[in-house]
Amino acid sequence: MKHFLDIHKTDAGELRAMINSAHAMKAARNNRPKGTPDDDQPLAGRMVALIFEKPSTRTRVSFDVGVRQMGGQTMVLSGKEMQLGHGETIADTARVLSRYVDAIMLRTSAVENLQELARYSSVPVINGLTNEFHPCQVLADIFTFVEARGPIQGKTVAWVGDANNMAYTWIQAAECLGFQLRFSAPDGYQLDAERLTPESAKYLTICANPEDACKGADLVTTDVWTSMGYEAENASRMNAFKDWMVDEELMVLAKPDALFMHCLPAHRGEEVSAGVIDGPQSIVWEEAENRLHVQKAL
Ligand code: CP
Ligand code: NVA
Q1: How far is the CA of 132 from the centre of ligand 2 (A)?
Q2: I want to staple 72 with a disulfide (CB 3.0 to 4.6 A). Which of 27, 43, 144, 294 is the partner?
Q3: How far apart are the first and last CA of the chain?
Q4: Cα separation of 62 and 177, whole Å?
Q5: Going by C-beta distance under 8 Å and a sequence separation of 6 or more, which residues neighbour residue 11?
Q6: pLDDT tens-digit readout, 66-104
Q7: Residue pLDDT, tens place only, 208-217
């Protein structure tokens, strides 16, 4: 059974094929109304369950619209309202859902929940975000970069912010696709060395400050200071990350044609200034749209 749980488990050739396919699928939409079906209907007669144990706007809507455009049907489920949220095991949920649906996307907290679902599911499982990884988003980000600037191989991506699910997924992608990832976070919010592989070291530079990370970068990216599930740490994070805002002064250190990305939702005035996210280098709306196309390719 082929699942999509993280980028490391996906072959680089397959990632590139998905990005090529996303280009073709995006072009094929050709400005047609959003509610109309694609010419190809590979999901006709198929049912996809989308399970959310955390909030979502983009993931929920892009998967739902994408499956429908491809001829399939979706069922959007809240983990809290399922028996899953009231003591039924993940293994039993996986076995039962596999009898009803053709694929499952799960957004959950611990990656172990996702792995458990995949272990007992007889239909493909897709990671719609865990505390550890967000592969659909990074796939969309790479597609967005490639679309705007060509191959990402050999390029430099600056990460300014928390060692969160997005940061670790970018590190996996750098190793898979051969680009450099410069990571910068304040003390106390560094990467966990145990989660890094010796191979990833070749593609990863830990920078002492956001300025070093951004110098000469092709892409600057950040994310919220407090990810979903870590809200109790919000006050201490606001203090620790106050010098880690991507603003105009930081962007000027990157290449003149550097792009700015943010997976969204964004907090203007915290991790990014309004001038940057709403400015000419920002490509965040294209990035959000591309979730749809790349997930259809996936
Ligand atoms: N970027 C992203 O995954 O957004 P949502 O939380 O709205 O799905
Ligand atoms: N790091 C963020 C990403 C949201 C899409 C979070 O996990 O809340």
Answers
A1: 10
A2: 43
A3: 15
A4: 25
A5: none
A6: 999 999 999 999 999 999 999 999 999 999 999 999 999
A7: 999 999 999 9
Distance (Å) from CA 57 to ligand 2 centroid: 11
> What mean pLDDT, rounded, does the chain reach?
97
For residue 265, which amino acid is it? P
Q: Which residue among 237, 263, 293, 295 is the active-site one?
A: 263
Within 10 Å of residue 199's Cβ, how many Cβ atoms?
11
In whole angstroms, give the CA distance from residue 157 to residue 181. Answer: 5
- What secondary structure letter does DSSP report for 209? S
- Within 13 Å of residue 255, how many CA atoms lie on the same side as its CB? 12
User: Is the minimum distance from the CB of 103 to ligand 2 under 6 angstroms?
Assistant: no
Is the pLDDT at 242 greater than 80, yes or no?
yes
Q: Ligand 1, atom 1: nearest CA belongs to which residue?
A: 263
Structure letter (DSSP) for residue 220: E
Q: Ligand 2 centre and the CA of 165: distance in Å?
A: 7
Q: Is the Cβ atom of 139 under 6 angstroms away from ligand 1?
A: no
Q: Is residue 268 among the annotated active site residues? A: no
Give pLDDT tens digits for 152-172: 999 999 999 999 999 999 999
User: Per-residue pLDDT for 30 more than 90?
Assistant: no
Phi and psi torsions of 57, nearest 5°: -115, -65
Q: Which of 71-80, 144-153, 193-202, 262-271 has the lowest mean pLDDT?
A: 193-202
Rg (CA), the chain: 19
Taking the CA atoms of 158, 162, 166 and 169 in sequence, report the sign of the dihedral they define.
Answer: positive
- State how far Cα 285 lies from the chain centre: 14
Give the number of residues written for the chain: 298
How many whole angstroms separate alpha carbon 148 and alpha carbon 8? 24
166 CB near ligand 1 (under 6 Å): no
